[in-house]
Write a structure and sequence with these properties.
It is built from 27 helices and 14 strands. Helices cover 54% and strands 9% of the residues.
Length: 733
């Protein structure tokens, strides 16, 4: 196995002043070593990972990392900055910067060794030694484990730097398996001679089941370690508080294992037993069911869905992002203990990051956005399927097909109109789920599965009383709030098992139904009708301004929350059997504007390819199809690499297209489809002109902005990808 880091990959005088420049400087060393084949393609992958979540950590550490097809073998580059580089850490810039590059198909052993390094970054002696290293060879030896810090030779430090490079394949299993060993023993890669290392070595040749057995056996035999979570028979009065945790991050290389190390260390300091299941790129081994059963509480520190969450149901649970597990583990442990004292327990598993309320430190505005996006994300497939089926029905049978009798009563296999009616009526049924699904999954985003029943009930009531999408929003939020309130009540242990199945659905549905039918349903229905009447009355400049605003929203975040708000607003108007003319104009404007960014990026890479790197030019070819299909996300790779030029340009073009579409009076009955539903568009020729105008404007702006970028002598136009580089000067004013 080749070494992942050498002295050539270390820069102790990193002069970069931005995270993009720092990543480029370190990546250039990887290119020189033949570890990276496409510099700009790799940096685009790094930027895309950075866009998901900042990689700065407390303590002056930055760990930009990604898995990329442009990496030939797992590689680590290290840079030390005198002035520091901002990687988004709460406590300021990072002076220790690790660029971790993993191939798209990297083997588990290499990834786990990289993860062992991530754990080492939680060791203060390790980082102090790196800051005082006098030359690249010394720093390389520290990182690889050829040299130890003054205190790392003791097993009490929680693992030595030497273990990162010397455990070899044992480290591959050790990082994930050590979390199942005694929390009192040293964590991943403890010094030679400890019982934990013995378990780690054994796991190399054992199966997952044998691993769990070996770890549990080693724990029970170690008399000086704290009582094992897998030994529920120990007297409760003599044992400490027990916590099981799961950590995971989008890449599964660094934050996953750093959060695990941080939680384990905080648990030892607090006298609490913490056992962590790391769900990283190298795979994971599930915690023993006995360990989970004996636990007093659960911590989820994750930014991707936790796998098999049902295992942890019925216990006091804290659900946060992975960085909270790194930055404030002690507070999370205290929060779990407080919930246990109050008798709080989750009726089911905690929701995923897309669906959950988020980190407890997030404001209510952020939580509300996530709750609403949960509902929208589940509603959109019903919109697409139902809307396109309705559109096909119209295309085959004409616009009078909505008056056809039920196919249950009249269906002739050989008649085209019967098939058109069938498609239309299936689409209508799918559309009928929009409001209940929106309400149900808003409640699900707030309170997980216990929120589904009252959410769907409230949404169905909103549909019944004609409260529309406003009623769905209200019903979902009320249902989620009611369930969350019930879950906070003190519940005897004997009743916790029936709470999610009987008690919560019964009480919450009754409360939501009462509020929707008797208290707030009628006012919301009146507000929905008033909004519909207002939209139907829009003409002239007001309609054009609305189209421009919707175009701006569609292009602001290219498929993100703002984009989805505009799209949901449009689909709400046509989610009826006979949508109004204004509603169909709004839908047309929204789809037209959403097609602009990817089509414009495709055109820009065609007419001025030298302004884009090779990866972007390849993405441009795919963007033609994505844009034509109304998949706005096709422009995301370009926006991630160069947001300050791509996004404003897209917004201008989208606003022009949206405004022109409304001015031309184009209408659309289908909620999706792009150019493939042009036959269903009113004034199709002018509609295509509106799209072409926005695409041309966006293309021109992107080309001009990229062309005005001043480059230092020797800079290559092919470097233009949006990431700030040391070779590149700031944009001209």
């Amino acid at each position: 196995m080749s070494e992942m880091i050498t002295a050539d990959l270390v820069d102790l005088d990193l002069s970069a002043d931005t995270k993009e420049a720092a990543a480029r400087a370190l990546a250039e060393r990887m290119v020189a070593k033949g570890r990276v084949t496409d510099l700009d393609g790799f940096l685009a992958d790094v930027a895309a990972r950075e866009a998901q979540m900042p990689t700065g950590l407390d303590g002056g550490i930055g760990i930009p990392h990604c898995r990329s097809a442009h990496v030939t073998e797992p590689t680590l580059a290290f840079g030390r900055s005198a002035d520091g580089v901002d990687f988004g850490a709460p406590d300021g810039p990072a002076d220790l910067i690790f660029l971790i590059a993993a191939p798209a198909g990297a083997d588990d052993a290499h990834l786990t060794i990289l993860s062992s390094l991530a754990r080492q970054l939680m060791n203060a002696e390790f980082t102090t030694a790196l800051r005082s290293a006098q030359d690249a060879e010394t720093a390389t030896a520290l990182i690889r484990g050829d040299a130890r810090t003054d205190t790392a030779s003791s097993a009490d430090t929680g693992g030595s730097a030497a273990d990162v490079g010397t455990q070899g394949d044992a480290g591959a299993e050790g990082t994930s398996e050590n979390t199942a060993a005694s929390p009192g023993a040293a964590s991943a890669g403890a010094a030679a001679g400890s019982t934990t290392e013995t378990v780690t070595t054994e796991t190399v040749t054992s199966t997952a089941e044998e691993t769990a057995t070996a770890a549990t056996s080693a724990e029970s035999e170690e008399s000086e370690a704290p009582a094992s979570l897998a030994s529920p028979a120990s007297p409760s009065a003599a044992r400490p508080f027990r916590i099981v945790a799961v950590t995971s991050c989008p890449t599964g290389i660094a934050h996953t294992y750093m959060a695990a190390e941080s939680l384990e260390n905080a648990g030892r300091d607090a006298g609490v037993e913490v056992v962590v299941e790391t769900q990283g790129s190298a795979g994971f081994t599930r915690l023993d069911p006995g360990v989970i059963a004996a636990a007093d509480g659960v911590i989820f520190a994750h930014d991707v869905p936790v796998r098999d969450k049902d295992r942890f149901a019925g216990k006091p649970t804290v659900d946060v992002g992975v960085k909270a597990g790194i930055n404030r583990p002690g507070a999370l442990i205290s929060e779990v203990q407080e919930k246990a004292e109050r008798g709080e327990a989750t009726g089911g598993t905690a929701p995923t990051p897309v669906e959950r309320s988020g980190d407890t430190a997030e404001g209510y505005g952020t939580k509300l956005r996530k709750w609403l996006m949960s509902g929208v994300s589940y509603m959109v497939p019903f919109v697409a399927a139902g809307g396109l089926l309705i559109a096909l029905g119209f295309a085959i049978g004409g616009y009078q097909i909505n008056k056809a009798p039920s196919v249950m009563d009249h269906f002739v296999w050989t008649q085209t109109d019967s098939w058109a009616a069938l498609l239309f009526q299936i689409g209508g049924v799918a559309f009928g789920f929009l409001i209940p699904v929106l309400a149900g999954y808003i409640a699900y985003g707030m309170a997980d599965r216990p929120g589904l029943v009252p959410g769907f009930v409230g949404g169905a009531i909103a549909l019944t009383i004609n409260a529309g999408f406003l009623g769905a929003l209200a019903a979902g939020l009320i249902a989620g709030g009611v369930v969350m309130a019930i879950q906070k009540a003190r519940i005897p242990a004997a009743l916790r098992g029936i709470m999610p199945v009987v008690v919560i659905p019964l009480i919450s549905s009754a409360i939501v139904g009462f509020l929707m039918f008797v208290v707030i349903g009628k006012p919301i229905a009146s507000a929905q009708k008033a909004m519909t009447d207002w939209l139907n009355g829009l003409t002239g400049s007001n309609a054009i301004l609305l189209g421009a605003l919707l175009g701006l929203m569609m292009c602001f975040d290219l498929g993100g929350p703002v984009n989805k708000v505009a799209y949901t607003f449009a689909t709400a108007g046509i989610a009826v059997a006979s949508p109004s003319d204004s509603a169909m104009k709004i839908m047309a404007a929204v789809m037209a504007a959403g097609m602009v960014p990817p089509l414009a990026m495709a055109l820009a890479t065609t007419v001025r390819g030298k302004l884009f790197n090779r990866t972007e030019r390849e993405n441009g070819k795919a963007a033609w199809v994505l844009g034509a299909s109304f998949i706005t996300e096709g422009a995301i790779p370009f926006a991630a690499a160069d947001p300050l030029r791509v996004i404003p340009s897209s917004m201008v073009g989208g606003a022009i297209t949206g405004g022109l579409s409304m001015a031309f009076g184009a209408t659309l009955r289908a909620p999706h489809g792009g150019i493939f539903v042009v036959p269903l568009i009113g004034n199709p020729f002018l509609y295509l002109i509106a799209i072409a105008a926005g695409v041309c404007v966006t293309t021109a702006l992107v080309v001009v902005l990229k062309s005005t970028r001043r480059q230092a002598p020797g800079g290559s136009a092919d470097d233009a990808g949006g990431a700030t580089a040391e070779k590149r000067q700031p944009i001209a004013a």
